[in-house]
Amino acid sequence: MPQTADDLDAVAVRTWCSLALDALGREREAIDAINVYPVADGDTGTNLYLTVESAAAAVEAVFAAHETGASLPSTADAVRAMAHGALIGARGNSGTILAQLLRGMAGVLAEGTGADRLRLALTTAAASAREAVAHPVEGTVLTVATEAAAAAGRVAEGAGAPAVVRAAYEGARTALEATPGQLAVLGRAGVVDAGGRGLVAVLGALVEAVSGRAPERAYETPAAPAPLLTAAGDCPAADDPEGGPAFEVIYLLEAGDEAVERLRTRLDGLGDSLVVVGGDGLWNVHVHVDDAGAAVEAGVEAGRPYRIRITHFAADRVHGRPGPVQRAVVVVVPGDGLAGLCAEAGATTVLARPGEPPASGELVDAIRRAHAREVVLLPNDGDLRHTAAAAAEQARAEGIRVSLIPTRAAVQGIAALAVHEPDRSFDEDVVAMTAAAGATRYAELAVAERQSWTMAGICQAGDILGLIDGDVAVIGEDVPETARKVLDRMLAAGGELVTLVLGEDVPDTLAERLEEHVRERYLAVDTVVYRGGHQCAPLLIGVE
Description:
Layout: H1 10-33, H2 44-65, H3 75-89, H4 92-109, H5 115-132, H6 141-153, H7 161-178, H8 184-189, H9 194-211, H10 236-239, E1 247-254, H11 257-270, E2 271-279, E3 282-289, H12 292-302, E4 304-312, E5 317-318, E6 321-322, E7 325-333, H13 336-344, E8 348-351, H14 360-369, E9 372-378, H15 385-397, E10 401-404, H16 410-418, H17 426-438, E11 441-447, E12 452-454, E13 457-459, E14 464-468, E15 471-476, H18 479-491, E16 497-503, H19 508-521, E17 526-533, E18 539-543
Parallel strand pairs: 7-8, 7-9, 9-10, 16-17
Antiparallel strand pairs: 1-3, 1-4, 2-3, 4-8, 5-6, 11-14, 11-18, 12-13, 14-15, 16-18
């Protein structure tokens, strides 16, 4: 059991993260069940848990780095690791706000701890979280954080850290119980704010970490909601009869402050639930939009987005809350451009970053986010077959019917997604998608990193390699000529449709020249071109 402390040292920070993770693990399903704002997608508890899990892992990494030394990490190292871990692992609207709350606290506690610093940390955290949200709404986790800080500020001077954090916890509980009277959608549903309930759990863990004793009373949902005081128009996203924007877009972004300010303005015009948190060149961006591609493109213009996650919200809603859709598609994509394309087609996407393929846990998380009873999984990479199989098995153990189609390239995934029809039977849909993927030959262009022997001969560093179905078939000196030779080899066996996916730095003129080449030499073959964004290969080719 934690020992009573007059300040928050590194060990207490570690304990806090561990206890918060345990608390959110216990309450995850209950919090998911009351998630009705800003989108009733039933994942707030899960998102908070995953956010704190990332924070806890970062703190553990700091302690692991000190195992061989004689001293423990400093408090500053621990709280900064906690904040950074939460930032890079933040999920959903609630997780992103929690990451900013932890970042606000860390900025103060890194300079010193104790009761006075904790008061200031809580106040700074609440203020910074409000600043991160484009349009703050009362009756949410922001209100709970503000009231927690205010309660901590009322503790008498000279009181210790345990008294401060306990006051913050009690203030948060009181504020949480009032949320149904502040936000119309909560009052109608008869629930408290899900994000606020998660924050109460996190603050309860802080009480235990600092005082050595858990709060006497765990949170209990009030028997009856508080009187409704606000108008329905106060929460347009939740009350929109059309259900609000279609997609949730989240990504990490490397960018400067001025670029991020421009990005905020751009994204605010595209959708709602906009939260941008972070600083010092690294940001976590969260927004709900109808045009997922435009949201990602705005990030590309601002800096370097990565770990892009696009979720298509469930369409059928019962009493304002989405039920599981019958079927969904989860697809791994190599670039942000394809992420937007697939999301607009209704798929839940997982971005495969260059040199950093997704782990099975990321795929399982994407399957869960799809909120579907039946899921088709498209890994789009032969090297991911074991990872995807493990994710599918885990999801099946959770009661989700998953069919893994062993697509080996993004163009095969595009072909499969093009024939996806959720209205037909699951088995028929899987057969059609599998047939479309299997009928698509795939190729890509790559740049040789060193001299080596290939199936097409010896290549030199800097040569352009044309790989067909995974094997080097053409060695060339430039991209256009190599691409033409690859197309000729692929179309020699026949084909009806050529798909070209251009990398981030490839000019549109390349696609125009290749389209002209196909049109002149293969009269019955059509060509479609997509922008892949930031991806490993300068060009991906599919022939159906």
